[in-house]
Amino acid sequence: MQTARIDLHLHLDGSLNLKWVYDRAIRYGAISDGTSFEDFYHIVYANNTKDRALSIRKFELMCDVLQYREDLVEATKDLVQTLWQEGMYYAEIRFASQQHTSRGLSQLDALKAVIDGAGDAMDRYPGIRIGIINCLMHKGDGAAANMDENFETIRVTKEMLGKGAVGLDLAGFENNGDFLAYAPLFDEACRLGIPYTIHAGEMGIGEHVLDALSMGADRIGHGVNCVQDQSYLDAVLDSHIPLEVCVSSNVKRDLDYAAHPVRFLIDQGANITINTDNRIFARTNTLNEHALLRMIGVTDEQLSQCTFNAAQAAFCDDETREWLLDRLEEDLRKG
Ligand SMILES: [Zn+2]
Description:
The protein has helices at residues 18-27, 37-46, 52-64, 69-85, 107-124, 147-160, 183-192, 207-214, 230-239, 247-251, 262-268, 279-282, 286-295, 300-313, 318-334; strands at residues 6-11, 90-95, 129-138, 165-172, 197-200, 219-222, 243-245, 272-274. It has a single domain (6-16, 66-319), classed as Metal-dependent hydrolases (TIM Barrel). It has 15 helices and eight strands. Helix 4 packs parallel to helix 5 (107-124). The longest helix has 18 residues, at 107-124. It is an alpha/beta fold.
């Protein structure tokens, strides 16, 4: 049975068509003129590393080519088309509007461009539905460094909530500074009724999962480091908070899928969803993630449960959730 139908954790800037990025990187001077596509490819994957600073530079390169409205629209359309071709029913694509303002766009312009790209693609491919998550950012210098930009991210997300935007996230440099220094942002998101997920316990310590819970997260991005301590794991299990697990993105060059905590977490009864994170850097897609998990002993029934978990955890409206659950039930009946 095809169980790969939903992706709740998917970064636009980590999931572009690499040739498309290359053409624009040349055009906009983000890489030097004489760089061949092969050289560019090696630059991108030479940085495929656990070094956080190099990893952030990769994302900067992707963001360099997403500074104009037409490029944001086109990139989003292309990603949705690819998801549709893979048989996906629903995806939440995330990006950070504050990363796309270096050539004159406002955060609202950037958010509208991505929403419009997703809307155009949904008109063309009616079998798929998309929600957009806007990311608050850790920039590497502590929460105070971009507090104003982060509050603006919340403001524009509220403006577009229910019109394509579905929620917020906190992404970036998880290990930097005091994680709870971001709490005022989530107080504001709560006040405005915006759902949110928080990257926690991915690169950072498992204790961040407790911090994310205390900041009221509706879901946790990754969260797999909760296995570092029984009290963190208990908090995840007791709260039943959905974890957006992205296995290939975590294992990187080690490729040690068997050592990843996903099987343990599923067996413990954690509320697991299966996602891709960054399709380019992890060289994966949702179908591949499900196939790899099957290979390390996760059963079809467990994978199907993960997909139903995702349907329940999606930041969509009730009508979309019912549509989604109906399609998944129909898949189950067909076997
Ligand atoms: Zn992520």
